[in-house]
Amino acid sequence: MGAPGGYWGVTTAPFPPKPDSSPSPALIIAIVLAVVAGPFAADLLIAGLDGDYCEQSCPGDTPLGSALAFGPPHGLCETVAGSPSCWYVFPVAGSGDAPPPSNVTVQLVNANGTPASTPPASIGIDGPSGCVVALWNASSQRWGSPSPLIVCNGTSPESAIPDGSSIVLLPSPSDRLSLTGEGLDLELVGTGPYSGSIEQPIP
User: Fold this and answer.
1) How far apart, in Å, do the first and last CA atoms of the chain sit?
2) What is the Cα gyration radius of the chain?
3) Where does residue 103 fall: left (phi above 0), alpha (psi -120 to 50 degrees), or beta otherwise?
4) Predicted TM-score (pTM) above 0.90
5) Residue 25 or 1, more confident
6) CA triplet 164, 165, 171: central angle to 5 degrees?
7) Tell me, what's the pLDDT at 128?
8) Residue 187's pLDDT is what?
9) Residue 66: enclosing H or E segment and its boundaries?
10) Within 13 Å and on the Cβ side, how many CA atoms surround 191?
């Protein structure tokens, strides 16, 4: 018969309930998701580093040559307002991934790929209807909006180059009137999500 107050005068109390060691449903779900998604997450990381999961936002993901192509160029020299003037027209065809002018730089290069010593007086992109999409600023090395000229409606240096456009190059009269026979190429270089370059010899 037990003594009052419990054994040896120590007040007894029921043992605390044993903690439930079984995992909670939330933990089970988290473990299953980790097991299932783990290999996919690893593949996604590796493929992302390789560029397989990149789209337009990934630097250099789209080769410029697959988005834009030169057509046969032609040159023309005429007397305008009493002064001889030459210009060269380079038709370009754009795919669904055609870049905006802001993702393309332009320059004249020699046969060995080095930039020409004297840049042209003017380079512009004309739309299919003859309006102007953008003008190249040699100082800032950027395309700008041609506000003083007949601007293509709905276009800007940030919008895709319209299919059927042309790049028009005017040589600097102070340097040489004609570039024919100089062995120069017009080179477009992709930037941002575009990589590589395309070239077209000056006719």
Assistant:
1) 118
2) 34
3) alpha
4) no
5) 25
6) 140
7) 85
8) 94
9) helix 64-67
10) 13
Q: How far apart are CA 88 and CA 182, in angstroms?
A: 13
Count, residues in the chain: 203
| Least confident span in 14-28, 34-48, 163-177, 178-192 | 34-48
Structure tokens at 192: 């941002």
Instruction: Look up residue 1 and give its two tokens.
Output: 């018969």
For tokens 């370009």, the residue is: 92
Give the rounded distance of the alpha carbon of 192 from its chain centre.
Answer: 4
Residue 150 CA to residue 3 CA, distance in Å, equals: 109
Q: Where are the beta strands (DSSP E) in 98-178?
A: 104-109, 122-126, 132-137, 142-144, 166-170
- In the numeric block, which tokens belong to residue 54? 């990149």
Whole-angstrom Cα distance, residue 145 to residue 153? 12
**pLDDT band of 201, cuts 50, 70, 90:** very high
Distance CA 202, CA 88 (A): 8
Residues 199, 201: Cα–Cα separation, whole Å = 7
Compute CA distances 165 → 57, 59, 119, whole Å.
25, 25, 22
Residue listed under structure tokens 């575009």: 194
Residue bearing tokens 């980790």: 34
Going by C-alpha positions, the residue among 95, 97, 104, 106 that lies closest to residue 163 is: 95
Closest C-alpha to 61, from 190, 191, 158, 195:
195
**Backbone CA torsion sign across 106, 111, 116, 121:** negative
